[in-house]
Amino acid sequence: MCTGSCAKCLGGTLIPLAVFALLANILLFFPGGKVIDDNDHLSDEVWYFGGILGSGVLMIFPALVFLGLKNNDCCGCCGNEGCGKRFAMFTSTIFAVIGVLGAGYSFIVSAVSINRGPKCLISQNNTWGYPFHEGDYLGNSDLWSRCQKPSDVVPWNLTLFSILLIVGAVQIIICAIQVINGLLGTLCGDCQCCGCCGGDGPV
């Protein structure tokens, strides 16, 4: 099992994660599962498109590059044929870094939103804003009643942004693995095994 096979396994994992992130971010535009009357009433972080751009669209490119590396996977180390393969592995490293940045962006946006809480109609003064401070609502569900509208916006946003947070963290780990895998493939040739996805070691 060579580095190209490992990259294909990682790429295949990124695709469903990217789709999952896209869907989660799209659902955030419908707080509580309902269409909102005014887009200004959506939380600011929803418009940062962390799941759509960072963990979604931007992650498709590294995934496709990783999947394509298997076609170049051949254990002809130290020969002329290896130059093209090593360049392909180096290219995958660059895309893996892009993936880390995209997933990191989604992770940060999600973490900020979870800490800040959702934008809603505040029951105390009947105005739209952010009623929570420094994540105080996370450990005290009684505070959720501060949000009058949209209904169920607190658990809705918390669940979806938590999903994006986890997806972003997993994508960061996967892309970081490919950075190491790509560097090994670039420096040592295709016969350097990364040992993932059932790898049998150097061939």
In words, what does this structure look like?
By secondary structure, this protein is mainly alpha-helical. The protein has four helices and three strands. The protein has a three-stranded antiparallel beta sheet, with no helix packed on it. Helix 1 runs antiparallel to helix 4. About 5% of the residues have low confidence. It holds the Pfam family L6_membrane. Belongs to the L6 tetraspanin family. It comes from Rangifer tarandus platyrhynchus. Its main location: membrane.
DSSP strand content: under 5%
Span of the ends, CA to CA: 7 Å
User: What order do the strands of the largest sheet run in, or round the barrel if closed?
Assistant: 2-1-3
Shape: elongated
Overall pLDDT confidence: 86
Structural class: mainly alpha
The total count of helices amounts to: 4
User: How many strand elements?
Assistant: 3
Give me the strand/helix succession: HHHEEEH
Contiguous runs where pLDDT drops below 50 for at least 5 residues: 73-80, 190-195
Radius of gyration, rounded?
Answer: 21 Å
Range of helix content = 55-70%
Describe the main β-sheet briefly: 3 strands, antiparallel
Organism: Rangifer tarandus platyrhynchus
Keywords: Membrane, Transmembrane, Transmembrane helix
Main location: membrane
Subcellular location: Membrane
Any descriptors?
single chain; 203 residues; mainly alpha; three-stranded antiparallel beta sheet; 4% strand; elongated; L6_membrane
